[in-house]
Amino acid sequence: MNEINLFSAFIMGLIGSGHCLVMCGGIASSLQLASNSLKPWRVSILYNIGRASSYMFAGALVATLGSSFAKQNTTFSVSLKLLSGVFMLLVGVYVMRLASSLKWLESVAKMAVWQHLIKLNKYLLPVKNYPRVLGYGMLWGWLPCGLVYSALIWTLQAQSAAHGALIMLCFALGTVPAMLLVGQSAAQLSRFLNHNLVRLGFGSIFIWYGIYLLIIATDKLVH
């Protein structure tokens, strides 16, 4: 089951990387051009390490909260699995672009988290050295993206903080190829990931996995 979680998290990040190029690609590119004294490849790597670090920290935090409550209450544990299944269905619909099923989550994340964290921007700009690049990546890892926060909700069912962090690391690794590529290569990858058949295929995977999670959770609820 853990292996399926990790693989699905990677696929979620991969298919969502087309969205990442829109939301974060411009930021990453501008950072590479921010200073003549910084090497572009180091800037790109550090930015993505910072972003992945925030994902992992958030995953560990959410998993800790989820596992703590789940150990005390079996019903709560089953409810988390049901919630994970529902969100897999929402992700599938979102990836297929059949509906804007995660827009509301982005709005909630923006109000609850991002509008407060964005104030830290003033301490990182201008991005003139490598530590600031890393910090900037960590900050923008909290950008209100529906797929990121869906993955975080998914980590509620993780057995431990380490498992939650690992799930989010796999998600981050899925986004890395698109974020490291530049120019024509990134455009080609984006076109491939946004092709109708590709989106339908990946979306179907999430929907079937969501149904699987719901069946497992319902069976435990009944028995």
From TrEMBL:
Record keywords, A-Z: Membrane, Transmembrane, Transmembrane helix
Query: What sections of the protein cross the membrane?
Result: 6-31, 52-70, 76-96, 133-156, 162-185, 197-217
Listed PANTHER family = HEAVY METAL TRANSPORTER, HEAVY METAL TRANSPORTER-RELATED
Q: Which residues form the Urease accessory protein UreH-like transmembrane domain?
A: 9-212
Keyword Repeat in the entry? The reply is no
Q: Which residues form a coiled coil?
A: none
Designated name of the protein: Urease accessory protein UreH-like transmembrane domain-containing protein
Q: Which organism is it from?
A: Pseudoalteromonas holothuriae
